[in-house]
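Hi there,

I know you've been waiting on this one. I reran it after we fixed the sequence typo, so this is the corrected version. Both the input and the resulting structure follow.
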Amino acid sequence: MSEEAPRKIISRRNRPVKAPLSRDAIVSTALDILERDGLSGLSLRRVAAALDTGAASLYVYVANLEELHALMLDQALGSVPVTEAGSLSWRDRLKTFLLAYLHVLYSRPGLAQLALSTIAAGTNSLRIWETLLGLLKEGEVDDLRAAWGIDLLTLYVTAIAAEQSVRRESDEGLGRVKNALSNVSEKQFPLVFASKETLLSGGGETRGDWALDVIINGIAGVQLQRSAPAATRPTKQRGRGSKK
């Protein structure tokens, strides 16, 4: 009697073994979804599905969607290069660094829109703050103006990146503006009518460079005044015989 041939075991798994779940894997997958489907298409459920797991599994690594947004933004900001000192002035290095920041936000679809509604506070974000504070300090900007100034600078750059990202998808908004200005009533809006060509003048780079100069000059050159409470005006006591 012949021996029975060993039983061949066939795996029921028809897909590769899943990579271990981790915070980095979650963030990287979320960034891919953001780039493909935009901010409105991003959810914990969709990230979990892409990782072939349940949404509940993600809560081991991220508290909620808001924290995931912050982690995504911070990871993406890791690609912002630091400007070397070289022969450039601190102002030129500051502008170069801010333009590199803008490029990173613009180059990845959906990232600028994410940055408008998210505050990242990880290692990469802190590196950016450190660089900006260092450059402003080099320009002898005091601590208060520098601290408030970096918020203003990054907000402006983020808004420009978001605007350009929208125009990349569709330029209908600018077309509507041009159409409105071409048909503006001189009688109803005399100042707009007189400035309609100027309002559309200047390319994006020219306007952006001008705006950064205005903001940087304001941060560096204007002493910030803290608002003081208004002095209490003494009240006159009216006598019985005084005139009203």
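Quick highlight: The CA atoms of residues 4 and 10 lie 18 Å apart.

Best,
R. S.
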